C-alpha cells in the first residue's frame, strides 16, 4: 500500500509539473481546455473552430488544445479527441491551421496559418468552402475600412495574376471580408478588430 501511495504521489507530481510548464509556455489566452467542460463532439468542434479562427485573427501564434484522453469513456478512447483531430485536418485545408501535432495523449499544439491563407486555401483545396459571400455585409463598414479592404482585394487579385483586377474587386472584397469576419467576435470593438485583421493581411501580402 505504501509503495502504491508513493507511486501515485510521483505521478501526480509529474502531472503537476507538466501542467506548470504548459501554463508558462502557452498561458490562459493561448489554451483551450475542452476537457474541463466535457462537451459533446459536435459542440467541441464548434467551440474549437470558433476559438482557432479568433486566435488566428489575433495573431496568437502557438496554441494548446486540451481534449483529454478518454480514460473514463467506455472503450478508453476520447471521442472529443478524435473529433478535434478531424477538425484540425479540415481547418488546415481551409487555411485556418498551418500545422499541428500531438503534445500529449490528451492535447495538441496548433499553429494558426497566416490570414491570407483563408482566401488562398479554398482555391487549391477540393473541400467546399462553408461560407457564402454576402454583398450586403459591406454596407455598414466605415469608409476607411472599406478602402483598406479594397486595397487588400486588389493585392490578392494581383498576386493571383488577374490582368484586370478591377473587374473582380467587389467580389473579392466580399470574400475577404467574409473570411476574416468569421474570426472577429461581435461587440463594440468588432470593426476596429476587423480593420486590424485587414491591415495584417495586407502586410502579409506585401511581405511575400
Structure, explained:
With 208 residues, the chain is of the alpha+beta class. The protein has helices spanning 2-26, 41-57, 79-93, 117-124, 143-159, 169-181, 190-207, and strands spanning 31-33, 62-66, 97-104, 107-112. It has a four-stranded mixed sheet with strand order 1-2-4-3, with helices on both faces. Helix 5 (143-159) packs across helix 6 and helix 5 (143-159) packs parallel to helix 7 (190-207). The termini are far apart. Mean pLDDT is 85; it is low at 128-132.
What attributes characterize this protein structure?
208 residues, alpha+beta, Ribosomal Protein S8, Chain: A, domain 1, 2 domains, four-stranded mixed beta sheet, 7 helices, 11% strand
How confident overall, as mean pLDDT? 85
Strand order of the largest sheet: 1-2-4-3
Termini Cα gap: 63 Å
Order of helices and strands: HEHEHEEHHHH
How much helix is in the residues? 40-55%
Total E-strand runs: 4
Oligomer: single chain
> Which runs of at least 5 residues are low in confidence (pLDDT < 50)?
128-132
Please count the helical segments.
Answer: 7
| Radius of gyration over all CA atoms, rounded | 21 Å
Please state the overall shape, judged from the principal axes of the Cα atoms.
elongated
Largest sheet: 4 strands, mixed
Which structural class should the secondary elements be placed in? alpha+beta
The tally of domains stands at 2
Strand fraction equals 5-15%
